[in-house]
Amino acid sequence: MAYELYYWDGIQGRGEFVRLALEEAGADYIDITRQPGRGxxxxxxVMESESEPHFPFAPPFLKDGDLIIPHVANILFYLGPKLxxxxxxxxxxxxxxxxxxxxxxxxxxxxxxxxxxxxxxxYEDQKPExxxxxxxxxxxxxxxxxxxxxRVLRQNPKGRNHIVGDALTYVDLSLFQVIEGLTYAFPKxxxxxxxxxPALLALHDAVAKRPNIARYLASPRRLAFNEExxxxxxxxxxxxx
Length: 241
Prior knowledge:
Distance between the termini: 48 Å
Number of helices: 9
Number of strands: 4
Radius of gyration: 18 Å
Helix content: 40-55%
Shape: globular
């Protein structure tokens, strides 16, 4: 039975971290809200169900048969061993999960650069605050998070090709997406700082060249970044830091 992925249509968003894992593994999955005749209403039906005992708070969530798994890191922790994208050693699976949770924290801060006050307000309603938040994010938070991931890669006893161990994990894929998203949202800032993270950039480039990922990136399934998702490019928010 195919996995069912539920996320907002028209954007990469948080759902993209799950898609990358499914695509790399060549897994059979259905992007539910992109299906003719189903769409977003099918996702809302699950979230607003009055009979489902384990209904999710928000997307993304994954259905595997009758099981519903919410939250990106939780989904990937579940899928990792099934898709051979997690270490065989059980303890290291929690290390990988911890790294993915750190990615989750970082992505939340990315979102807050353009919506620092209220998610129900338009970006245009909070532009001064967004500009101040983005300046601090570029100056302090990008180097804080990317510097951490760079250190983890450099200190991996199995080498710098992967974030943990000597084989690809879902966190390697997620870090690829983080670099892609930041480069789209803050091209000036990233151009100014990329030299500080050679191991991360090498990992990004290696992931992009993986056959299944390369095919996915060239396919219509890979939506373009846009100003409705998590990573948004507003020129006024980008600076060299």
